[in-house]
Amino acid sequence: MIEVEVVGVRIELPGNQPLVLLKETQGERHVPIWIGPPEASAIALAQQGVVPPRPLTHDLMLDVIHALGRSLVSVTIVSVEDSVFYAQLQFDDGTSVSSRASDALALALRSHCRIWCAEQVMDDAGVLIEIQDEDAEVARPVSGPGAEEPEEGAAAAPATAEQEQELRQFREFLNGVEPEDFEP
User: What is each CA distance from 50 to 11, 34, 65, 105, 177, in whole angstroms?
Assistant: First the structure.
């Protein structure tokens, strides 16, 4: 298992589809997970430490967990199938419950528990973002075409025009999103 942290919630342009971006704590790989607007709002509010006057769904769920004498100790992104991410909630008594990744992340941020990602998920969905200079970044998949390790001392292969365009769009998306974009 690889420990990850939530970098933030962003909006992918031009489709205005929200995503949550995870990053491994001891590495450089990122995992983008496309999510729905309500989940994006729940994650963004938790990241900002906003406490609503009345509990939202994830706040209520955490209140129920505590009222039952339990605590959430960790969440794990366990698999990805056809771009759908699956997670597990791990409780202090050893109980494990299946969850959508977005709900698991919203609960993890509220309970301040550790977030883990299965190595296979990181290998399948992870992306390396290399900084080449101030104005250019190159995203490379962790596995599959374009993911091979360069020989020691060898220069990295140049990104294709399609990869560079995709990265430019991703950077625009990351730079232009604010948590307020998710407020109703």
Answer: 20, 22, 20, 16, 18
pTM over 0.85: no
The b-or-e profile of 145-179 (16+ CB within 10 A means b, else e) is eeeeeeeeeeeeeebeeeeeeebeebeebbeebeb
Residues 5-39 have pLDDT tens digits of: 999 998 887 788 899 999 999 998 999 999 999 99
User: Cα dist. 30→22, 52, 68 in Å?
Assistant: 5, 30, 35
